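Students often ask why we bother encoding 3D structure as a string. The short answer is that it lets us treat folding as translation between two languages. Here is a chain of 279 residues written in the first language.
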Amino acid sequence: MGITSCKSTPLAVEVDPLDILDSESAFYIAIPSNVDPDLIPRIIQNNVNGISEANARLLAGKINKVYCGLNHTKNKTSIQASFDAAIPQKYVSKVLNKNNGFSKRLFTAQKSANEYTVYANKNLELTFPSAKVLALGRDIDNVLQSYDNIFTSAEPDYSYLQYSNLNPQLYDFLHEAQDEIRFFANKPQSFLTILTGANLNLKLSSVKGTFVSDPKVENQYLVDLTFNFQNEKFLKAGKTLLSLAFGLTDSQTYTDNNNVLIIKGIKINKDSLYRLIKI
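And here it is in the second language, the structure alphabet:
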């Protein structure tokens, strides 16, 4: 677990899991573990082949927050995820072993020559670069290189620096998620199609929003969405289409800065979010 061997480094910093995701995903989600007790176990069980529901929930109990970057094609979802976690080595060896179909390889970082263990199972790769960080999914070697660049940085107080490749607005919005699921779609068309089931032809720059569990309905989220249109003309047309797609009878709608539409209190079945991230 973590670095298997390395050259000594004069300084090492604690790496924030969000900093190691790349900027190649169409949309991003931050999931604090306290928002929906079923969501993180679903992510684990549906991405780690062969893991039981009991072990998935065991691992999920050691996770504080998940950051996911996702891309959708017609028949496939590509995920890149990093976890703020504290998973003991005994759980890693219990789950990621040959009996469950996992193999191991080493990744050697550039410059530092630090080595990290990568676990592989069919089309999935995952790694534990430290006791507090888990990463899985697409381009895991690049994720590890990003981790190592920060870990071996000459600046121990790296929180004041910007290592992330993500847009600063996207980064700050996700990083501040505490009591709600937050998402940011900088390629919003595919996001809306999956969420609504309708092919909405909207001229959007971005969509962001929050999900919280509805205290009155067990299998339902309350969703607030902010749509950033390319201009005011597209906002007027988009508002009508969105009202039809979401059935905004109980929602509150606002406009801001001529090209921003804010909708609060949308009621969405939890399966819509599970479908969005293909779990």
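Translate back mentally: Helices lie at 39-47, 53-60, 89-95, 140-151, 168-175, 188-196, 232-246, 270-276. Keep this in mind for the problem set.
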